[in-house]
Specification:
Radius of gyration: 19 Å
Number of strands: 16
CATH topology of the largest domain: Jelly Rolls
Shape: globular
Low-confidence stretches: none
Number of domains: 2
Distance between the termini: 32 Å
Helix content: under 10%
Largest sheet: 8 strands, antiparallel
């Protein structure tokens, strides 16, 4: 067999390229989100002579996955507006019965000048908490935390996430960089807005300490929800 996982995304003007599960998707004129990807097997078909889009149920499903995935990666840019910026980011097709309230918190030891990608590191300890808080932090200096799980979005719309920290932090929803509290971050509140469909959306919140007393907060607001702390019922993890 051959490995088929991972996602790589590139874009230029109205062109989008995506590698998903080992297949290459290409939209040369992505004038709106309904435009289909051409799909190529770059392992068996190096010249990319055969467009596999629509040739079987497998590739019909892959077409939809590619369309979903590009919305889960790209953050709209006011300096490079795209026709599909107004699309809702789709949630995951997951059975909520397999999830329970809580947050997975993983702690790390080290001194970093930037917020590391903790997903590639071995955690000192893993635990579950009910909310996003610094109780799992092993030390006040030279440490870090990765919070992860799923957000339950109660209503489709524009959701704004606002964070503040002593040190540095990064918030990703799906693979979107929603908040960058890392490069040149000075500790002031920083926010990002993302258009989310109703449903379940994965998130990762990375935090590193600094010389000051550790502090981290994350708030949200959206349709019928005023700016405030994320409630327990909105934070989910895989059970049991």
């Amino acid at each position: 067999g051959r490995q088929r996982d991972g996602v790589v995304y590139v874009e230029f003007n109205n062109q989008q390229g995506l590698y998903l599960n080992g297949y290459k998707g290409l939209r040369l004129k992505a004038t709106d989100h309904s435009v289909d990807f051409e799909i190529y097997d770059t392992i068996e078909d190096e010249p990319e002579a055969q467009n596999l889009a629509g040739t079987s149920d497998e590739f019909i499903r892959l077409q939809q996955r590619m369309k979903d995935e590009v919305l889960r990666i790209r953050m709209p840019n006011k300096h490079a507006k795209k026709a599909y910026d107004g699309e809702f980011v789709p949630g995951l097709d997951v059975d909520e019965k397999t999830l329970q309230e809580g947050v997975l918190a993983q702690s790390y030891l080290g001194k970093w000048d930037w917020v590391p990608d903790f997903t590639g590191m071995v955690a000192k300890k893993s635990s579950r908490t009910q909310t996003i808080n610094l109780d799992p932090l092993p030390v006040e200096q030279d440490g870090g935390l990765l919070f992860s799980g799923f957000l339950r979005i109660p209503k489709a719309g524009d959701w704004t996430f606002q964070g503040e920290a002593t040190g540095g932090f990064i918030l990703k929803i799906h693979n979107k960089l929603v908040i960058d509290g890392d490069y040149q971050y000075q500790g002031a509140p920083v926010s990002g807005t993302v258009r989310l469909a109703e449903g379940i959306h994965p998130y990762r919140l990375f935090y590193r300490t600094s010389a000051g007393k550790p502090a981290l907060s994350l708030r949200w607001e959206g349709p019928n929800v005023e700016m405030g702390a994320l409630p327990v019922g909105a934070l989910l993890v895989k059970g049991p």
